[in-house]
Specification:
38% of the residues lie in helices and 11% in strands. By secondary structure, the chain is an alpha+beta fold. The longest helix has 22 residues. GO terms for molecular function: ATP binding; protein serine/threonine kinase activity.
Length: 237
């Protein structure tokens, strides 16, 4: 970006924060405050989220007290799900790089960040791998044309799975990976059982995870259907 191309932005400009008339601050992306250009570089200033990111918080939890309780994971995931649903349905944006690292916390409130790979949620993507290996949907890994909103649902399912088990479901959602072929054949519930977590993760949670982590995107549940599940309607924020 050259200085001459952005002379008109040399003064600090406030940003209008995104709002949703039907949502709480718990369901919003990190808010932009202002931007400015200095020495030809564009700087974006966002709200301070000093609570760390979900990945760091989860890592610290496993080192001290062990697994995250299902109820806590549900509460956090509901915030993230609502935030991504707001992106999809109101802003028309698919994130395409959803991960625990890209959810920050501010006073216990989840904030979605890092939109460098985001795209139009209503358009089919032509292929190409984007995102982090652990979180990429099978159709993205395969380089197929894909629905980015449904790819986001897979990534959200992986986030939730990691919060509950402490490990990613697969290193890469590709038929070349033995773990992935096992998921294709037996489902996520079988993995949870083999890993010894079925006694601490409810049937309802496993059922929703199974639907979010369908390897065939045509069979994958939509985000609005996830949020409509009774599992999330019982949570009080």
């Amino acid at each position: 970006m050259s200085p001459s191309s952005h002379k008109c932005f040399c003064r600090v400009r406030p940003q209008e924060p995104h709002g949703h008339p039907c949502s709480s601050p718990r369901s919003s992306p990190v808010q932009p405050y202002f931007h400015f250009v200095r020495d030809g570089t564009l700087y974006l200033v966002y709200e301070l989220c000093d609570g760390g990111d979900l990945h760091s918080i989860l890592a610290a939890r496993f080192q001290t007290s062990g697994f995250m309780e299902e109820s806590e994971a549900l509460s956090l995931m509901r915030q993230v799900l609502k935030g991504v649903h707001y992106l999809h349905s109101t802003l028309g944006v698919a994130h395409r790089d959803l991960s625990l690292e890209n959810v920050l916390l501010s006073r216990g409130v989840c904030k979605i960040t890092d939109f460098g790979l985001s795209t139009d949620a209503r358009k089919v993507c032509e292929g190409g791998q984007v995102g982090k290996d652990f979180y990429m949907a099978p159709e993205v890994v395969a380089g197929e044309r894909y629905n980015p909103a449904l790819a986001d649902v897979w990534s959200l399912g992986i986030m939730w799975f990691i919060m509950l088990t402490g490990s990613p479901l697969v290193s890469l959602a590709s038929p070349s990976e033995k773990a992935f072929t096992a998921v294709e054949r037996h489902g996520v519930g079988a993995v949870i059982d083999v890993w010894g977590h079925s006694d601490r993760i409810s049937r309802d949670t496993i059922s929703v995870l199974e639907k979010m982590l369908q390897t065939d995107p045509r069979r994958r549940i939509r985000l609005d259907q996830v949020l409509a599940h009774p599992l999330f309607s019982t949570i009080v924020e």
